[in-house]
Design a protein that fits this description.
Helices cover 26% and strands 33% of the residues. The protein folds into 2 domains: 133 residues, Roll (PH-domain like); 382 residues, Sandwich (Tumour Suppressor Smad4). Helix 3 links the parallel strand 8 and strand 9. The termini are close together. Helix 3 packs parallel to helix 7, helix 4 runs parallel beside helix 5 and helix 8 crosses helix 9. It is elongated and about 100 Å long. The strands form 5 sheets. Strands 12, 13, 14, 15, 16, 17, 18, 21, 22 and 23 form a 10-stranded antiparallel β-sheet that branches. Strands 1-2-3-4 form a 4-stranded antiparallel β-sheet, covered by helices on one side. A 4-stranded parallel β-sheet has the order 9-8-10-11, with helices on both faces. The C terminus is likely disordered. The longest helix has 18 residues. Bound molecules: adenosine-5'-triphosphate, the ligand CCCCCCCCCCCCC/C=C/[C@@H](O)[C@H](CO)NC(C)=O and calcium ion. Keywords: Kinase, Transferase. It holds the Pfam family DAGK_cat. One of its GO terms (biological process) is ceramide metabolic process.
C-alpha cells in the first residue's frame, strides 16, 4: 500500500460515537469510517478504504491534549452506586486543528477520540506530540512579544490577554511579554538585549510597530555580524530570528497581506504552526548612511502628506486615514523629482502582469538574483524627471481594509523587486478615479495614461524644489519681474513612519527576513486540491 512506511500509528478509535480507523502518518493524520473491517476497538482488517474521511497535515495541528471524559459505562456504574464522580482515567484525547471558516479566517477546531484504554491514549498523545516537536516544522517555543497599547483602536493588550495568550499556552509556547511604554521601546530593546533564547519576535500592533521590530532586528543582526549596513553595496546577513505580527494597528497591511485578513486569532495560528515566508526588504540610504528598512509602502507626495496629517487625528483610530486622505485630496499638491531606476530585466514580471502571490508562490521561488553584483556599475539605469501627485514604492502587495486587492495587486512578497507607482500631474477628478480603484476590488487601478508603473531592483529619488524662473506681476509698480518659484516638499511615508529626508537611494534585498505566516492561500485551489495533496485514502485509491 502506498506510503505504508510512513504509517506511525494506526488504531480503531471512537469518534462521534462511531468506530473510526485513525492513522498517523509522518506528514498528516487521517480518520474515517471504513467500508470493511474493524467493528471492535483495536481490531481492523486490511485491505480497507475509508468510506468518508478527514485528513489534517501535521503542520496544522495546534496541539494534542488529554481529554477527561466520563465514559457512558462509568457514568452508569457511578449512578447506580450513587457516586457523583470517581477519578477519571484519561483515555480520550483532543486534537486541536486549524479550521478554515472562509475569507482566510482561521479558527481552532476540536476533534475528540476515545481510546480503548489509558495506555493507547498515552501512545497517541506521545506519537502526535513527537511529530509536532520535530524540527522540520520549525514551530516556535520561545517568543519575545511586544504589545503597543496605543496602536489602532488601543485594544492590543486586551486582544493579547483574551485571544492570544490562551492559544500560545495551548500550543506550549512560552512568551515573554513587554507592553511598550514609548515609541522605539521595542526597537531599542532588540538592539541591546540578549535575544539568544528566542525563536522569534512578534508584536501586537500595526505596521509602524512591525517596522520597529524590523529595523531593530536588521540593525542588530548586521551589528552582531560586523556588517557595515550604511554601504548600499553590502550583502546583508539574514537574521536568525523570525518576525510575526498580530494585528492591533490601523492599516495592518503587513499582516493582511501575509495572512489574507487582519484577524488576531488567524495570525496567532499562523505563528503557532511555525510556517514562514521570506519577505523582501528595502534599505533606504542617504549618502553614506542608512536611514531605515521598509517592507510595505514607501511613499512621497500624497501618501507622505496623508501620514503627517493623520497623526494629528490619531484619536479617530483607523478612520483617520480616510479623513486625512480626503483633506489632502481637496488641496491638490504637485511635486517634482528626478527618479532613476533599475528595472527588472525579465519583462514577464511587471506590476500589470496579472499574477498573484499565493502561499508556495512559484514566481517567488523561481526568481534568481545575483545579490553580490554591484548595482552601480550597471548601465541599465533609466531616468525620469517630472511632476506627480503621488509616488509609491510597493514591495509587497499591501492589501488592507483600505485596499483589499492591494496597492499593487501583482506585487510579490519575495520576488526581490519593488513596484514604482507614479501618479503624474493630473486633474483632481482623475486622481480620485485612480484612488477609487485602489480602494475598490474592481478594475485595473493602473489603467490611466497619467499612472506610470515599473518593477525595479533599486531606485534613486531626487526632489526638485526650485521651478526655474516664472514671470510674475508685481502690482505695486506695475512691472513684471522674474522669480524662482519654490516647489512644495513632501516627506516619506515609510511603513507608516515619517521620514523627513528628501533625496534617497533605495535597494531591494531579496527575502531578507522570514515572517511567521503562510502567505495568502488561493481558496479556490484549497477546495479542489486538499484530498489529492494530503489525504492518504484518496491517494491510495488513485
Ligand atoms: N507605548 C507607546 N506610546 C506611544 N507610541 C508608541 C508606543 N509603542 C509604540 N509606539 C509607536 O506607535 C506607532 C504606531 O503604532 P502602530 O503601527 O502599532 O499603530 P497604527 O499606526 O495605529 O497602525 P498602522 O501602522 O497599521 O496604520 C509606532 O510608530 C510605534 O513606534
Ligand atoms: C480621497 C480618499 C483617498 C483615500 C486613500 C485610500 C487609498 C488606500 C491606500 C492604502 C495604502 C496602504 C499601504 C500601507 C501603508 C501603511 O504602511 C501605512 C501605515 O500603516 N498606512 C497608510 C494608510 O499610509
Ligand atoms: Ca517584492
Amino acid at each position: 500500500m502506498e506510503a505504508a512506511d510512513n504509517v506511525l500509528l494506526k488504531t480503531v478509535l471512537i469518534h462521534n460515537k462511531k468506530n473510526c480507523l485513525v492513522t498517523l502518518f509522518s506528514t498528516h493524520i487521517c480518520w474515517g469510517l471504513m467500508s470493511c473491517g474493524a467493528d471492535a476497538i483495536g481490531q481492523y482488517l486490511e485491505p480497507f478504504y475509508y468510506q468518508r474521511h478527514e485528513s489534517v497535515p501535521i503542520q496544522e495541528i495546534i496541539a494534542i491534549t488529554p481529554e477527561k471524559i466520563q465514559h457512558a459505562q462509568e457514568k452508569k456504574q457511578n449512578a447506580s452506586l450513587g457516586i457523583e464522580l470517581i477519578s477519571l482515567e484519561t483515555r480520550s484525547f483532543c486534537l486541536h486543528v486549524v479550521k478554515r471558516v472562509g475569507g482566510h479566517r482561521w479558527r481552532v477546531r476540536k476533534v475528540i477520540f476515545d481510546c480503548p484504554d489509558g495506555q493507547a491514549c498515552g501512545d497517541w498523545i506521545d506519537a502526535v506530540q513527537s511529530r509536532l516537536n520535530s524540527k522540520e516544522y520549525g514551530r516556535p517555543k520561545h517568543l519575545l512579544t511586544f504589545i503597543n497599547p496605543f496602536g489602532g483602536k488601543r485594544k492590543a493588550v486586551k486582544i493579547y490577554e483574551e485571544k492570544i495568550e490562551p492559544l500560545f499556552y495551548l500550543a506550549g509556547i512560552a512568551s515573554e511579554v513587554i507592553v511598550t511604554e514609548r515609541a522605539n521601546h521595542a526597537h531599542d530593546y532588540i538592539l541591546e538585549e540578549d535575544l539568544r533564547h528566542y525563536d522569534g519576535i512578534i508584536c501586537v500592533g500595526g505596521d509602524g510597530m512591525f517596522a520597529e521590530l524590523l529595523n531593530g532586528l536588521l540593525r542588530r543582526t548586521q551589528q552582531d555580524a560586523g556588517i557595515h549596513d550604511a554601504n548600499q553595496e553590502t550583502k546583508l546577513v539574514n537574521p536568525r530570528l523570525k518576525l510575526g505580527v498580530i494585528p492591533g494597528g490601523s492599516t495592518d497591511a503587513v499582516v493582511y497581506t501575509t495572512c489574507g485578513i487582519n484577524d488576531p486569532v488567524t495570525s496567532a495560528l499562523h505563528i503557532i504552526i511555525g510556517e514562514t515566508v521570506g519577505v523582501d526588504v528595502c534599505s533606504i540610504h542617504q549618502e553614506n548612511q542608512i536611514l531605515r528598512y521598509c517592507v510595505s509602502m514607501l511613499a512621497y507626495g500624497y501618501f507622505g502628506d496623508v501620514l503627517i496629517d493623520s497623526e494629528k487625528h490619531r484619536w479617530m483610530g483607523p478612520k483617520r486615514y480616510d479623513w486625512s486622505g480626503f483633506k489632502r485630496w481637496c488641496k491638490k499638491f504637485v511635486y517634482e523629482a528626478e527618479i532613476s531606476y533599475l528595472e527588472c530585466p525579465d519583462t514577464r514580471h511587471h506590476p500589470r502582469d496579472g499574477s498573484r502571490c499565493f502561499a508556495g508562490c512559484e514566481i517567488c521561488n523561481s526568481i534568481q538574483h545575483s545579490e553580490g553584483e554591484s548595482l552601480y556599475s550597471d548601465d541599465k539605469w533609466q531616468t525620469f524627471q517630472g511632476r506627480f501627485i503621488s509616488f509609491q514604492s510597493i514591495t509587497m502587495p499591501c492589501r488592507c481594509d483600505l485596499s483589499p486587492n492591494g496597492v499593487s495587486p501583482s506585487q510579490h512578497l519575495s520576488n526581490g523587486y519593488t513596484d514604482l507607482i507614479i501618479a503624474k500631474e493630473c486633474s483632481q477628478v482623475d486622481f480620485l478615479r485612480h484612488m477609487w480603484r485602489v480602494k475598490s476590488k474592481t478594475t485595473d487601478q493602473f489603467d490611466f495614461d497619467f499612472v506610470e508603473v515599473h518593477r525595479v531592483k533599486a531606485f534613486k529619488f531626487r526632489p526638485i524644489l526650485e521651478d526655474g524662473e516664472d514671470e510674475e506681476n508685481d502690482d505695486s509698480n506695475g512691472r513684471q519681474r522674474l522669480r524662482t518659484r519654490q516647489l512644495r516638499a513632501s516627506s516619506w511615508n515609510c511603513d507608516g513612519e515619517v521620514l523627513t529626508e528628501g533625496f534617497i537611494d533605495v535597494k531591494v534585498h531579496h527575502q531578507l527576513i522570514k515572517l511567521f505566516a503562510r502567505n495568502i492561500e488561493d481558496e479556490r485551489q484549497l477546495k479542489t486540491d486538499f484530498c489529492e495533496t494530503s489525504c492518504y485514502s484518496c491517494s491510495a485509491r488513485r
